[in-house]
Every structure is written in structure tokens, then in C-alpha cells.
Design goal:
The structure is a homodimer.
Chain A lengths: L2 E4 L8 H11 L3 E3 L6 H10 L12 E4 L2 E4 L1 H11 L7 H23 L14 H29 L14 H16 L1 H7 L4 H12 L1 H8 L21
């Protein structure tokens, strides 16, 4: 089965968590809005009037007759199908819990540049962004990274993975979040680096996994930019 | 098995989505921080140094040996165990997708009064809150409610439920979100009411379900207040 991924073509965004899972799994997929059809094809799928399970927002994954929305939900599905999550109920829930916590961090990272809302340009909320950015760097970022460091440290199967002894989609997502934070907040990340050696080591190892390394070097990996979730505005990384 | 729910004792907050599912299911549970032990017991559980699956934030549900965090994840678990979600994979994913979309709405409703971050008091971000509140009322609120209206309208089994022909945890959560929005934004909700008759009807029906009606009338239901997610600040409901 060939998957269809529907996501904005110009950014990594939330779609990137899905892309990484598909790439790691070696799954056959087409990134619809980046190939045939473009954004029009995505909007058509989003708004199809007879769609019984209408989605609220991208990313969407079409898998045969299924149309699945919400990033963490797509990963729940892919995790089961491609061995990217444990098979037992406890491990599945724990992996999903970590993914949802990463999703919370992603919202907060996004809101550093859009504290007043996505309906305004960054330029219309620069002052507010500066305050929220400072709060994020000083309080939230260390709290979240400290949390994932603790999770790795307490894994009874060793600090190589967040869950058990094998790679899960939560590891891939933590890689992506660290990469995004490195891009957006290089100074803040450098400042806290020493406190999170396990998180850093996991990031570095994931980047070297052959399917991920190939993907990162390919044109399929969209560079970080100032349209996505993780944006480098030096004034927010003071 | 008696469940243990760990959540802040003075607010409905995110814990309320779990409480509603437990009440509807008639499950045996103790709301730990509201009874024996109080907040101290919750913090002790949160920070237990040997906890292999450390949680990031409440709510937490202890179910035998399991300690489950993240609201949507707890509902995923309870949905399976108490018949509050379909048994088939497609229906389970769709229910979860709707729950995650409701969770996104909850974040945005919260951020109307805390656009700069939870680390500052409302009084320190009133001006920013006014802007974000307006954006929420005018753009986001109608978009989210219109979405759930559409989901109900397109349900092949009728508009009585979000998923299929039976109650799911997503219905309970939509009830709670509408109740919260009614409390926080009574004027805005009145203004858009005519456009979402199915959402309103679902809310009203859920409130009358015997286990829910009993719960809402009990002391277990904490009143809405200005410490929680849904706060009534008239200046944000202009």
C-alpha cells in the first residue's frame, strides 16, 4: 500500500514527525502537496464534502480507506504497523504519552513567535513574542528538556531510547524537536547543553541511522525556515 | 480495581475530561488530591524518584501497576476498558483524532488569558490577552465549533454522537468544552449559537445522562472559576 501524506509543502512543521516515521520504516509514500497536485490537491482532500471523517488541519495520512488526522494519532497508527512502538499495551501508552508531551512542547515553541495567534504576522506581535520567548527559554525549555533527560536516564533498558530497548516514533520525534530547537534557539540550547547529555546523544545517534541520514541529505528534507514551527529570530534567542 | 486520579484539587482543568469518563463509566475511583493526602500526595506521586514512567504534568491516572499521563492518552485507555470508544481500529483512531482536536481547542481557550505564558499572572498580560481573546472569539472559536458541527452532521449513524451510534469519550469531552466556553465567553457563545445546533443539542443531552447529571449536581463537580482553563473575564468576551 502506498501512503499519501498531506501537508504544507514549504515547511517541516508537524508533517515532519510523520515524514520521519515513514522514512525510518522505509514505507512507500507520496508527499502529495510536494508532488502532483500541490496545495490544491491537499485542500481538495481537506474539504471533500463527502468525507465522513473530515480533518481539522494537516497533516493527514491516507492509508487505503483510512484518512487519519492529528500528528500523534497518525504516529499511533504507524507505530503499530511498522514496529515503531512496543506491542504491549503498557509500552504503547507510554510511547504515546511521550509523544503528546513532545506535542505540547511543539505548541509552546511555536507560540514564542505567535503568542497572540496564528492570525497575525510575527511582525504584528514582536513585542509580545519577546516576552514569551524569554519565558520559554528560561523556564519551559529547561523543564521540558530536563524531563526527557530524566526519562532516558530512568529507562530500565538503558538510556539509548525513550522506551524499552528499541527505537520508537517518540525517539524520532525527540530528535526532530531537538533539531528544531537547535535551529530556533542556538544560543539558549548551547547554554543548557551540558545538562542534557542523554537527549543530545539520542539526537546525534538518530541523525546517523542510515534511513534517517539518507533522508536528511535528500531533497525530501525541507530546510528549516521562518515559515515553520521552529523559526530562528535572533531577538527571541537573546 | 480502584483507580487513582491525580489532579489539582481546586479546578476542573484537564482533569475534568478524565473525571467525566470515570463518572459515565461508573468506575470506582478516588480523586487523590481532593481527599486523603491532598496536593502533597499528588506531588509525591509526580516526583517519585523510582518512577520508571515519570509524568510531565497532571492529570495522571493510576490503574493497578500503570501510571498513565496526558489527558488524551488516559482517555484512550479508559475508552477501551469501559466501552467509551469503538472496538474497531478505524473507530478508535477517529475518536482519538477528535479528542486531540478538542485538546488543541482547550490550549487555545487557555491561552486567551495567558498568551505570554503560564509563568505570569493574568494581570501581567491583560493587554495581550485582550488581543488574543478577540482573535479567539472572531476566528478560532467559530472555526472549531463549525468543525464539530460538521462532524456531527456527517456522522452516517446520525448527529446524536460524534462517532458511530454510541457515546464515546469524545462526546463527553465536547460537552465539557462547550460548558467551559459557555462559562468563559457567554456573549460570544450566544452570538454563534444558531450556527451550531447539533453541538448544542449534544451538550444538552450529555448533561441529562443520569450518571453525568448526578455528577454535575454533586460536590465532586468543582465549579468553574478563575484559576482553571475556562475563565470568565468579561473584558475577553467583549
Amino acid at each position: 500500500m502506498r501512503y499519501e501524506l498531506y501537508y504544507w509543502p514549504g515547511i517541516q512543521g508537524r508533517g515532519e514527525f510523520v515524514r520521519l516515521a515513514l522514512e525510518e520504516a522505509g514505507a512507500d509514500y507520496v508527499d502529495v502537496a510536494r508532488s502532483r497536485g500541490g496545495i490544491d490537491a491537499m485542500m481538495k482532500r481537506m474539504r471533500a464534502p463527502r468525507q465522513v471523517h473530515p480533518p481539522f488541519a494537516p497533516p493527514l495520512l491516507r492509508a487505503g480507506d483510512l484518512l487519519i488526522g492529528q500528528t500523534a494519532n497518525i504516529l499511533l497508527y504507524l507505530g503499530d504497523r511498522h514496529g515503531l512502538a512496543p506491542k504491549d499495551a503498557d509500552g504503547r501508552l507510554w510511547t504515546h504519552q511521550l509523544q503528546l508531551t513532545l506535542a505540547d512542547l511543539v505548541v509552546e515553541a511555536h507560540d514564542t513567535h505567535h503568542p497572540i495567534g496564528a492570525g497575525f504576522y510575527y511582525e504584528e506581535q514582536k513585542k509580545e513574542a519577546r516576552r514569551r520567548g524569554e519565558e520559554f527559554r528560561k523556564t519551559r525549555l529547561p523543564k521540558f528538556l530536563g524531563y526527557f533527560e530524566r526519562v532516558l536516564d530512568r529507562n530500565p533498558r538503558g538510556p539509548g531510547h525513550l522506551v524499552g530497548a528499541r527505537l520508537t516514533y517518540a525517539d524520532l520525534s525527540l530528535f526532530q524537536v531537538v533539531a528544531g530547537l537547535d535551529y530556533a534557539f542556538p544560543r539558549a540550547m548551547k547554554r543548557v547543553a551540558r545538562r542534557h547529555p542523554l537527549v543530545r546523544a539520542l539526537h546525534d545517534r538518530i541523525a546517523l541511522r542510515p534511513p534517517i541520514a539518507r533522508y536528511l541529505a535528500s531533497e525530501r528534507r525541507i530546510p528549516f525556515n521562518e515559515e515553520g514551527i521552529f523559526r530562528h529570530y535572533p531577538e527571541l534567542d537573546a
